[in-house]
Design a protein that fits this description.
The protein has 366 residues and is of the alpha/beta class. The protein has two domains: 171 residues, Rossmann fold (3-Layer(aba) Sandwich); 150 residues, Dehydroquinate synthase-like - alpha domain (Dehydroquinate synthase-like, alpha domain, Up-down Bundle). The protein is 47% helix and 18% strand. The chain has 13 helices and twelve strands. The strands form three sheets. The protein has a seven-stranded mixed β-sheet with strand order 1-2-9-6-5-3-4, with helices on both faces. Strands 10-11-12 form a three-stranded antiparallel β-sheet. It is globular. The chain binds nicotinamide-adenine-dinucleotide and glycine. The site of glycine has 6 residues, from loops.
């Protein structure tokens, strides 16, 4: 992968777009948006944390490029992904007289991207969306590929739409202000890309981890570009998750179950996914798909990053929560398994006892 690559195309016919990645891009947001077929009104959706850090620079850049900008803040955190916050955004769009070519600009992490993305997908049956992700998780994963979503009391992401953005602008300089725990959680998704698609990426993280954890610009920009390129290729082949896209859920079945079992409070998403990847790899070892050395390599990298690799949540709770997972079809849970670092396969699990054995194996084989 070449260092100079800082624009990743996502080719989806008339829904194609560019992911522009680099340091200091917020200042150039207006000029980047001016290249799109937009009218001059735009609403920036953000939260108080991100607004304090980057609201002014984003607004100034858009105004310089001739946009009439309104800025709307929603509460910080997962609770913003609600129908009531979406309704607040619709009201703001009406007040700002947004038309079918006015842009919604999502400035923040995955929460803002999912909420603003859903509002953009549904207002006037869809208006342009610009993703401006400011967390590592959002830059490598949630801002790309068009999944948007809101939570209901009954569960996460139960309301949503596939809706591709018109542009993604990932300013890697914003990662400098990210709390270290959030950076580590985002790295979990980068490790995932290495596990499912690219041993070279996995090796790069192993050998450059110190620089990455110091949030140095060059390795981080490379990791974001590399991850986006992998995700773009998957999404191009299977936009609506009819098959291949499921590989992006490596580690997520158990990860989601752990998040559900702990009420989404104890662990960040990336932390739960790290544990899930270890369990999926343990299951793969048990099925003879890969060797124990793959499990040790994964676990040792996750530990060096500072991510959890096991949890003290009861196995019964985890197995039970998997029972409610969206990936259940015909009573089978489909698991993304590894055939060694860089290679995946998807296989059904019908026997809960096998899963339980994998959870035990994952927790004991360290
Ligand atoms: P988040 O959006 O809650 O952001 C994490 C925290 O970092 C927040 O407090 C936020 O205010 C703060 N923050 C954001 N940018 C910052 C910066 N540059 N400096 C300092 N603080 C900053 O969490 P997240 O991990 O980015 O996203 C998680 C959400 O993404 C979940 O709701 C998850 O369901 C969703 N998600 C969606 C997809 C998808 O494909 N749509 C994929 C993965 C996750
Ligand atoms: N985050 C998984 C996906 O976008 O499909």
């Amino acid at each position: 992968m070449k260092r100079s690559l800082d624009t990743v195309p996502v080719s989806l016919g008339d829904r194609s777009y560019q992911i522009v990645i680099g340091s200091g891009l917020l200042k150039r947001l207006g000029e980047l948006c001016a290249g799109l077929p937009l009218t001059h009104r735009a609403v920036v959706v953000t939260n108080p944390v991100v607004h304090r850090l980057y609201g002014a620079v984003v607004k100034a850049s858009l105004v310089r490029a001739g946009f009439d900008v309104a800025l709307v803040q929603v509460p910080n955190g997962e609770r913003a992904k609600s129908l009531s916050q979406a309704a607040r955004l619709y009201q703001a769009f009406v007040r700002h007289r947004m038309d079918r070519r006015s842009a919604v600009i999502a400035l923040g992490g995955g929460v803002i991207g999912d909420l603003a993305g859903y509002a953009a997908a549904t207002y006037l049956r869809g208006i342009p969306l610009i993703q401006v992700p400011t967390t590592l998780l959002a830059q490598v994963d949630s801002s790309v590929g068009g999944k948007t979503g809101l939570n209901l009391r009954e569960g996460k992401n139960l309301v949503g739409a596939f809706y591709q953005p018109s542009l993604v602008v990932a300013d890697t300089q914003t990662l400098e202000s990210l709390p270290p725990r959030q950076l580590r959680a985002g790295l979990s998704e980068v490790v995932k890309y290495g596990m499912i698609a690219d041993p070279e990426l996995f090796g790069y993280i192993e050998s450059h981890l110190d620089q990455v954890l110091r949030a140095e610009e060059e390795p981080l920009t490379l990791l974001v570009t590399w991850s986006c390129a992998i995700k773009a290729k998957v999404v191009e082949q299977d936009e609506r998750e009819d098959g291949l896209r499921a590989i992006l859920n490596f580690g997520h079945t158990v990860g989601h179950a752990i998040e559900t079992a702990t009420g989404y409070r104890r662990l960040l998403h990336g932390e739960a996914v790290a544990i899930g990847m270890v369990v999926a790899t343990a299951l793969s070892v048990m099925r003879g798909l890969c060797g124990k050395e793959d499990l040790h390599r994964l676990r040792s990298l996750l530990r060096r990053i500072g991510l959890p690799t096991s949890s003290n949540i009861g196995f019964t709770n985890i197995v039970q929560s998997i029972g409610y997972d969206k990936k259940i079809k015909n009573n089978m849970t489909y698991f993304v398994l590894t055939k060694g670092v860089g290679h995946v396969t998807v296989a059904p699990i019908s026997d809960r006892r096998e899963l339980r054995r994998a959870l035990v194996f994952a927790s004991r084989s360290s």
